[in-house]
Automatic annotation (TrEMBL):
GO biological process: carbohydrate metabolic process
The species this protein was found in: Acacia crassicarpa
First-tier enzyme category under EC: hydrolase
Family to which the UniProt record says this protein belongs: Belongs to the glycosyl hydrolase 17 family.
Name of protein: glucan endo-1,3-beta-D-glucosidase
Domain of life: Eukaryota
PANTHER family: GLUCAN ENDO-1,3-BETA-GLUCOSIDASE BG1-RELATED-RELATED (PTHR32227)
InterPro entries xrefs: GH, Glyco_hydro_17, Glyco_hydro_17_plant
Keywords (A to Z) from UniProt: Glycosidase, Hydrolase, Membrane, Signal, Transmembrane, Transmembrane helix
Positions of transmembrane segments: 371-390
Length: 393
């Protein structure tokens, strides 16, 4: 009896050691990469399991992920990893979240159970709320953010998890030159209290910024090299004399200027989404594999350099690339379904300088059968040793 249980525990600890080794070799493989954030959107019916995605993320050296919900399968799959999550409250939840008891129970259900194993740094309350021109939703945004924040305070989590929202760049009515950045007049009644909230709780202002849309809108006026971070003359802001060599940084500084125009210089701006589609409809000028590769490839290089914008040179811009996968169920023009760095099967859409890969399902089962084989070997060796011992005795 005792011998059999020793045998089993020997084989299982060997298996544990083996899987540890496999995991370590996976982590230790010299893959080029840098610390960056990525949007993990899931509006698709063909994406790999979150567990396999965790393998891909690990090989990509991605340190921060943004979700549009609080998918428990994803949060569990990243249990024990160092990846930091932004999770999202959906737009349709906004009304209910203005009620602090509902906010608190949402946090208790969707955040608290994962927090000890998975890093959740931020909750976004809604995505691009202001672009829908829905007065009720616009009015609900700040109260919902406040009640989510107060619920976190009640639970003692406000120092761990911050509260923000993500906005479309279209909430600006002017962005050129960057120093003249201004919010849409009709949104100011909602944005003013939003900024006070950010300043009070020290949370960042998130913007979804797509130079692609600007280029698509006026391809004859905007230099493609300027939007793709390629060598170009750039532009000088006549008010500040600051030189811009790419549109994304100019967009961020336009947001800083718009915020400053409402009296705040104490709020950090982060890019919650940026990217470029690798495919588009005939009328979507600029949507191409080559442009997407240049935009995201150059963007990743810029991120590695931890640059700030010309107006905020000492604050490295925090950027979440959109997106990890092509999402086949997204409505709208073809470009919407083609922002991914990866196809759902794990092959890169283009070479953006990343060398991450999706662990194959066959590899998963192979390592399991390796484990069984090794377990069997250990079993046989143990038996031989036992027979040898017994014969000696
Ligand atoms: C991952 O990113 C970190 C932080 O930028 C860097 O120090 C490290 O070398 C990177 N690792 C790999 C394997 O690229
Ligand atoms: C809002 O709360 C009510 C009452 O608890 C619930 O019936 C409803 O489903 C909630 N709405 C959403 C969108 O979750
Ligand atoms: C919302 O309102 C703005 C400003 O009036 C307008 O430019 C925009 O097209 C509207 N958006 C929608 C989705 O109706």
């Amino acid at each position: 009896m005792a011998n059999i249980s020793t045998m089993f525990s020997a084989s299982s600890s060997f298996f544990i050691a083996l899987s540890l080794l496999l995991t370590l070799s996976d982590i230790c493989l010299p893959i080029r990469g840098s610390e960056f954030g990525i949007n993990y959107g899931q509006i698709a019916n063909n994406l790999p399991s979150p567990t396999r995605v965790a393998g891909l993320i690990n090989s990509l050296n991605v340190s921060r992920i943004k979700l549009y919900d609080a998918d428990p399968n994803v949060l569990s799959a990243f249990s024990g990893s160092d990846v930091e999550f932004i999770i999202g409250l959906k737009n349709e939840d906004l009304g209910n979240m203005t009620d602090i008891s509902q906010a608190q129970s949402w946090i208790q259900q969707n955040v608290v159970p994962y927090l000890s194993q998975t890093k959740i740094s931020t909750i976004t309350v809604g995505n691009e709320i202001f672009t829908n021109n829905d007065t009720q939703q616009n009015q609900n945004l700040v109260p919902a953010m406040k009640s989510v924040y107060n619920a976190l305070v009640n639970l003692g989590l406000d120092q761990k998890v911050s509260v923000t929202s993500a906005h479309s760049f279209n909430i600006l009515s002017n962005s050129y030159p960057p120093s003249s950045g201004a919010f849409r007049e009709d949104l100011i009644p909602y944005i003013q209290p939003l900024l006070s909230f950010h300043a009070q709780v020290k949370s960042p202002f998130l913007i979804n910024a797509y130079p692609f849309f600007a280029y698509k809108g006026s391809p004859s006026e905007i230099s493609l090299n300027y939007v793709l971070f390629q060598p170009n003359a750039g532009m000088v802001d006549p008010n500040t004399n600051l030189h811009y060599d790419n549109m994304l940084y100019a967009q961020v500084d336009a947001v800083y200027a718009a915020i400053k125009a409402l009296g705040h210089s104490d709020i950090e701006v982060k890019i919650s989404e940026t990217g470029w589609p690798s495919k588009g409809d005939a009328d979507e000028v600029g949507a191409s594999l080559e442009n997407a590769m240049l935009y995201n490839g150059n963007l990743l290089k810029r991120m590695e350099m931890k640059e700030g914008t010309p107006a905020k040179p000492s604050v490295p811009i925090d950027i979440y690339v959109f997106a990890l996968f092509n999402e086949n169920m997204k409505p709208g023009p073809t470009s919407e379904r083609n922002y991914g760095l990866y196809y759902p099967d794990g092959t890169p859409v283009y070479d953006a300088g990343l060398q991450g890969r999706l662990p194959k399902m066959v590899v998963e089962s192979a390592s399991k059968s390796n484990g069984l084989f090794v377990g069997y070997l250990v079993y046989v060796i143990t038996c031989l040793v036992l027979v040898f011992e017994i014969s000696r005795w």
